[in-house]
């Protein structure tokens, strides 16, 4: 994988932006005092979460993106294998491209960020379903962490694997499984 | 399916206990004033969640079990199909039996309850992985709802399908996919 960086699930404290050969920005943890990380009660977040596919123009603070990714890193996985890469995409051009990889992904074009969940080829057939289950757990906790910060999320399948691998510069033996679009809700969903 | 009752994902307001031909208890929603539903901040719940496999003797209030199941019902699923049954098991004999269906499920024997995630045969191959992803989402939000109430959760795969279907009286074309054991942590996990 050249020119892009992904975040291994077991590597803590760094958020890597995918850049496809252009530039690389590493956020090494939340910067206190920039954006509030105050949230809401758990049950309120569970009830407030909606699939949000229409976003306003506000960008998402890096420390908020980091918080959401940190939630994903805390998700459980079979034997704690953490067989996932969470690829954070924030470049508008890349978000536009990602919106074309699935018929139900048009909302990604106007999102302020997307987290693409990338799966390596499993070491045995047994993990082919279990890894999907684990991605579901990681997805849910990231969406709740987003809700907690007032950020809307809308996830999507990925159909065109070739296109998604090209956009993210992902190895051919990795599956672009799902993506979570992020942005402030344009209206009350 | 005779003698047991499962809770369809899209049927709200009722918690069905599986009983395997013995008795049937329906909890039709939380009973105010019995057990507190006060919780914690979302980020605290996300950080506090651990896989808990050792439980003390306290039983779980029905309104807490209902809250946890309600969280699962609120989980998103592909096209909102909610292709799942959440089967709540609280009988000690059944929990003991369920602890034998997978090598990593021994903790279920001392849990105070378990929620078994049962999947019907998917309508197309495409959903075979997507439904697993959706079960992961439902699992995560139920575990966080449990954490929010101070209740520990530890999930497990299910190996012996025949045994699990017999214990729950589940149809042969349904998969006993995972179970979530619940109980108050015996010690700080």
What does this structure look like?
- Two copies of one chain form a homodimer.
- Chain A is an alpha+beta fold.
- The first copy, chain A, folds into two domains: 1-36, no CATH class; 42-183, NADH Oxidase, CATH 3.40.109.
- Chain A has helices spanning 42-48, 62-73, 92-98, 126-148, 161-168, and strands at residues 7-8, 15-16, 26-27, 85-89, 113-120, 152-157, 174-183.
- In chain A, helix 1 packs across helix 4 and helix 2 runs antiparallel to helix 4.
- The first copy, chain A, starts with 6 loop residues before the first strand and ends in a 6-residue tail after the last strand.
- At the A-B interface, helix 1 and helix 4 of A face helix 1 and helix 4 of B.
**Biggest sheet of chain A, in brief?**
5 strands, antiparallel
**Count of helical segments of chain A?**
5
Q: What is the helix/strand order of chain A?
A: EEEHHEHEHEHE
Number of domains of chain A: 2
- Gross CATH architecture of the largest domain in chain A: 3-Layer(aba) Sandwich
**Which ranges of chain A are low-confidence, i.e. pLDDT below 50, for 5 or more consecutive residues?**
1-31
Percent of residues in helices of chain A comes to 25-40%
Oligomer: homodimer
Would you tell me the overall average pLDDT of chain A?
86
N-to-C CA distance of chain A: 38 Å
